[in-house]
Structure formats: C-alpha cells, structure tokens
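Input record (one chain):
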Amino acid sequence: MTDPSPFRHTPVIRPETYKSGTYTMFNPESFITDKLHAIDASGIRRVFDLAANLKNPINLSIGQPDFDVPDTIKQAAIKAINDGKNSYTQTQGMADLRERVMNQLISEFPQTYANAQGTFNNDDLGLLITSGVSGALMLALLTTISPGDEVLIPDPYFVMYKHLVTLAGGTPVFVDTYPDFQLTPDRIEKHITPKTKVLLFNTPSNPTGVVAKPEVCKAVVKLCEDKNILMLSDEIYDEFCYEKTPSDHDGKDRCPSPAAYSPNLIMMRGYSKTYAMTGWRLGYAVGPKAVLDQMTKLQQYSFVCAPSMTQFGGVIAHDLDMSDFVAAYKRKRDMVVDKLAGTFELTTPGGAFYAFPKVPESLNLTGAEFVEKIIAKNCLVIPGNVFSQKDTHFRISYACADDKLEQGLDILVQTANECAAAK
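The corresponding structure, as predicted from the sequence alone:
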C-alpha cells in the first residue's frame, strides 16, 4: 500500500545500527555526538567518587555563597507567581529589569554605555537579560564561533569555558597565566593566529580569585581591538572584589573592568553570586548591537527568555546593599591567606571566594594526589587540573561558615606538614 502522506519521515540509517541487511540492537550510545564525547568530566567525577562515602565532610569545594537569598527578593518573586505573572517575558527581558540594568551600567561606565543625552546608547549597543552568565556565554559563543575558529582561554580557567568552546565547534587555545594569574597582552599575543576570533576574560577569577589590574584591562582591550578579536568579559563575581580602584569619572571605588575602556566587547554579569541566586538563573549581557541582536535571536529559539519570576526578583535586587556580605567574605579571604601563606605558595585572591594554592614542590605530589590525601581526612577541595592543563595546585572555596573554614585550613596545613615529615 502506498503511503498517502507526502511528509512521511524517511529514517536516516546510521551505519553502526544497520549491518548485513539487518538492524542491530537499539544502542543509545550511537545517538551521542562527538562534541559531547569530547567533554571530559573525569576530574570532577573523581572528586565526587572519593567524597561519596564521607559523612558530614568539611566542604571547601562549593562555588556558591553560604548565605540565603535576601527576603525582599524572595517576596518579589513569590508575589509575581501569586499574581499570575508566570508567562513568557519579552525575549530580551522585562522592561523594568532592563531599565535597572541600563541605569546601573550608565552609573558605572558612562563613558562606555551612555550617549550624548546621558541615556543608554541603544543605537550602537544591545542588552539581553539571560539565564545566568552561563546562558550568556553559551549564546555568545554559539553566535560568534564557527568550526575551526580559535578561542583564547586563560589557564587556569572556569571549568565550563573549554567545553562551551568545543560545543560551539571552536578550538580552545590556552594562555598560561601562572604564577600571578594576570592575563597580560604579552602572554596573549604569542597565541594569536589568523584563526583567533574570541578571547575569554574573567575577573575576579574562578578558580584563582585574582582581580585583573586596571592597566591590564586597558591593555588587553586595546590588543583585542587592534587584532579584531572579540572579548567576552565574564564578571559574575564583580561585587566580591576586595581590590577596588577609583573610577576616572566619579572617583568611586569599583572593581576594575575592561568595560571601562571600550564598548567593543561583551560584558556579562549576573545575580547568582552577589544575591545567592545561583538556582534562579539570571544574568545579562551587554555589547555591540550587531552581536547582541543575534544572541537575542538565538535566545528566542533556545531559552526563549530568562525565568519570569526571577526577573521580578532581579528588579528588587538592584535596591539592596550587599556590602556586609562582601565584607564578611573579605574577612574569610584574610583567614585563608593568614593560615596558608607560610605553608603554600599562594597568590593573594583579590575577589570572588576562591583561593588557588600550589602544592609545595618539595612534597613531590601532584595537585590531584594531594587532594586525595585531603579528602581522606574528610575535607573536600578541588584539584587544580579540573581548571587547568597543569596539575600543581588545588582550589579552595571559602564560602562556608568560619568554624568549618578554620577546620579545613588546619587539615590542609597539617597534611602538608605530615607529607613533608614523611619524606
């Protein structure tokens, strides 16, 4: 009998499932793309495997604040839900939230984001409310990267970077920033080729906590403009900055940012860290209109919009003063530096809530080997090779209670001393 439908689906037979005239058994693995197989989660999986049997461990591995979302933000989201404001928003984000973000940007970087009338420069720039900074990163990379394009990534790096580049079809090119973790032009320039298209910039940094100096921000922006490279500036930890410097236009202390020097980059910030809204998935991207328009189009056909109730919470968040929380984390940072500096080589973190100590070379241990000894003592930290092509360091998150942090730091120092004594 002839199929009456002209739209009947003709199945595509994958060679591995059709052999010698017969179909082999259904194989779910055959559906997985090479891009996904290229993503290696073994480093983090190894830590979780080791931690699986621990009871109430001292956890210095979690990359999120240990305080809760402020009540006023919660109530704004709850009210939105109860008021029936649960539908899609505009793809580019709610007007109220966009206005609050634009005002914030103009206040902080008028030289970059304001027009002659002092309002947001809509003629040349675009603004998109996103599902977190991670969502913004994915949209930006899928918008700008074609197969074969090279993306410069500082090493050490946020664990997601290289995998997102791979998913976009690009080639990660790592720029070694050891030992001070500053992504300087001289370190970048030797990796630039005709295929280089994007540079990922992260300040304050995860995993090192290092804050880019103003002169470094300015010089890297100029290098990118000279070489026609698009900078993606990930500033999710901008509020947790303990090395703020005076702004040129008003003298207020702010976290150094490449956005102070040019609109020709995409800056991404979010609400996850500053307001402990990690599960709410809310952020934004701002940059050249041509690129942001395409990112908006892609969001329309993927995320559709950032979650609506979290956008109502985000509007309220702009009214809150989080300085007490930032001060508490600065004090925790100081605890880490005071405790570890005599035992480990440590670049003082200027922001975020991470430290990235080096395992003493005299111990003849890799970062992963040292971390296994720490986990055996019921303390969780992350080996540096999860964030780097090297395996010499480990990452601490000090976003935890003071007593737990002190116990964990004691274990780190004690273990290093025991390893030294055993040699």
